[in-house]
């Protein structure tokens, strides 16, 4: 499994769905559809998305390391 970081490429808003898709080996589109479908159910999905957006580190590029 890949590390849980928000990728620089393939993100729509914050990169949370792209990060989760990369972690679980699925496509980002599938993860986005799952998230949107879960928003129809009661619960704190939107707050969880915001928390992950704030807590997950952004992916570093090779040039940023030096």
How would you characterize the overall build of this protein?
The protein has one domain (1-56). The protein contains three helices and no strands. Helix 1 (16-24) packs across helix 2. It is globular and about 35 Å long. The protein has helices at 16-24, 28-38, 45-55. It is mainly α.
Main features:
transmembrane helix, 66 residues, Phageshock_PspC_N, 3 helices, mainly alpha
Would you kindly provide a brief summary of this structure?
Helix content is 47%, strand content 0%.
* Silhouette: globular
Helix content: 40-55%
- What's the number of domains? 1
How much of the polypeptide forms β-strand, as a percent range? under 5%
Q: What pattern of helices and strands is seen along the backbone?
A: HHH
Topology:
Blueprint: H1 16-24, H2 28-38, H3 45-55
Helix pairs in contact: 1-2
